[in-house]
Structures are given as structure tokens and as C-alpha cells.
Amino acid sequence: MMPLRFILVGLGARSRIWRRVLHEHPDCRLVGLVDTDDRRLVEAARESSQAAGDSATPFVGATLDEVADSVDADVALLCTPPGGRHSQIAAACSAGLSILAEKPLADTLRDAEAHVAAADEAGVPLAVGLNFRYLAVTEALKELFSDDRLGPPEFGRFTYERWRDGHLPHLNKYPLTMGQPMLWEQSIHHFDLMRFVYDAEPVSISARTFNPSWSMYADDANVGVLISFTNGIEVTYQGTWAGNWQQMGFEWRTECQRGVAVQREMFGNLGYAFRDDAALSTVPLRAEEPWVDDARGLLEDFVSHFRDGTPLPCSGADHLNSLRMVEACIRASSGEGTVRLNEL
Ligand SMILES: NC(=O)c1ccc[n+]([C@@H]2O[C@H](COP(=O)([O-])OP(=O)(O)OC[C@H]3O[C@@H](n4cnc5c(N)ncnc54)[C@H](O)[C@@H]3O)[C@@H](O)[C@H]2O)c1
Prior knowledge:
By secondary structure, the protein is of the alpha/beta class. The chain has 2 domains: 126 residues, Rossmann fold (3-Layer(aba) Sandwich), CATH 3.40.50.720; 177 residues, Dihydrodipicolinate Reductase, domain 2 (2-Layer Sandwich).
């Protein structure tokens, strides 16, 4: 069977993971590289040749239009900043390329809706890189909510407190100056995880965003949210990129019919307890390499969609429901009060 041929657009921090998992996957081939930064193009082309051999050197260029015109491909993998992807989506649609776009699909809800509509009109599948759904801890947490274990969740508290030094050389720089960086870049993962593990959709949101005096971000690095989901689930969420301690704080506790589930680290440390238990029981998790194995899991499902006709994972249309949560937080915080999601 022909491998699925990818053009990778945007060769920054995140693209490194994708280049690695694409090179390793027997059914995928990297045939094109796109970046507006010449230096990154040269470096990525050199590294790709070293990984795959000179005969498989990808075609390089500054625009997706140009590269898609020059090489036969199946998929455009967008690893660019989320703002201003219109020309990349248009180029993929006109070349008939399927799209796998890094989260968030856009940095406004309206742009994301336009991208989903454009892909739909062109008949190209559009998936979004929500790799955290594929972490072992996420899968195990979701399983805890089954009827024969803790039972359905009713309320939860999710805290994410991080000192994110956005000036570190290996990190992207655009969040330093974008609007609402915490919400668009980080909370979007958390909102998606809530919808995924609770198997519920948001109904209404109250929120407050702000920026502490020591924040290095131009816009709000802090958010506090109250979320009501279908099935009557209530969640209190607090997220920050300007927590004033180098040590990461992460805790996601969910109260269920028969007890609690507690995740204490982003990539593991999951426990549960029934109401009368004296201590949490640890849930054993498979060993994994964070960021890499979860990207592999997503890629596997994406490839299966084309190979075996399985459902497209993390579709753009589904992602809009998480982006609506971001939009609702922004509106609620700017004075609209409690925002109902079906009004967005
Ligand atoms: N899923 C995850 O866990 C995860 C982790 C990190 C980043 N991301 C996402 O990946 C995306 C990229 O993030 P990053 O950290 O790699 O950013 P980055 O700034 O490190 O890299 C972006 C690259 O895109 C290039 N670029 C910008 N505009 C372009 C254009 N119009 N055409 C071609 N190239 C262009 C830049 O030159 C740069 O090389 C973002 O959406 C981010 O949220 C996802």
C-alpha cells in the first residue's frame, strides 16, 4: 500500500515531534517542508535527509501552494501559529490535501469556523492535534467513570499552575504577544480533555481572566472558570502560566457517584478512592514517552481513517465545541456575565 504523504507546514518547536513520529511510521512519508523562515527550512531538510536517507529528501518551500504544486502529497500537517492560517487552509483545500492542524485550529472562533467550513466545502477531512486524549492517564481516567467502577461524574476541580518562561529558547515566542495566551494555547487542551473524559458538552460558562503584575505575557495569563456541562456536571477550573513558583501545580479531582478520581500530574499519577477508603488507590499506567507516544496514538488513528475507514479522530467540527468554551470565557470575562454556549 502507498504510504500517506505529508507536507509539514511550520518547522518550529512542535514540528520536531511530528517529524520524528512521521519518520518512524511505516505508513507515512514526509514529502514536503514549508516555512517562511529560510534557516528553519534548511535545518529541517538536513535533519530529514539524515533520518530518512538522501533519496527521500523532502521538497522545500516558503508556501504550501508552492510545495503542493511541486510534489504529490495526501496531507498538510499545519504546525504554524494558530493566527492567520487562512492561506494555508485555502492552499490545502485547493490541492485536495487532507488537513491535520495543530491545536488551536485558529485564534478566534470565527476563523476556526471558517476553516472547518472551507474544508467541508472542499471535501477534505480536517483533524486537530489533540494529542492529550491519547495519554495513558487520560484513557485510564475516562475508564474510571464507568458504571462498574466510580460511576458517572457529577462535579470536578481542575487546577493547572505553571511558571511558563516564554523566553526559553526551545519555546515558541508568539504567545508572549497574542491575546489570551493561556486560554487559546493551554486551556484549550484542558477544555478538550474535560469534554472527552466526561463525555459531555459545555452548557454555560462564567469566567474571569487577568494578568498578575509579574507576568511576562502581554495579555492575560490567568483564568478562573465555572463550567456547567450536560449530564449536570459542574467544573471549577483555574489555569495560569504565571504561577509564581518554578514547581508545577496540577490536580484534577472528579467526584463521582461512588467516590473520587484524582490526577495529580499532567502525564500520570492517577488514583481513585471509594467514599469510605482511607487512602487513594494508584491506577497502574503503561510506560510512555510524553508528547511522543500521544502524538503516535493520534497519528495512528489519523492513518487508520484513510486506511480502514475508521472515524476521523479529533475532527475540526468537534474541536469547535472546545473553542466555544474559550470564546465564552473571553466574553464572560469582558462583562457578558454567564455565557450560554448555544448562543455563540
Ligand atoms: N499539541 C501539542 O501538545 C502542542 C505543543 C506545542 C505546540 N502546539 C501547537 O503547534 C503550533 C505551532 O507551535 P510551535 O511551538 O511549533 O510554534 P513555533 O513558533 O516554534 O513554530 C512555528 C513555525 O511556523 C513558521 N511559520 C509562521 N507562519 C508561517 C506561514 N504562514 N507559513 C509557513 N510557516 C510559518 C514559523 O517560522 C515557525 O518556524 C501551535 O498551534 C501550537 O499551539 C501544540
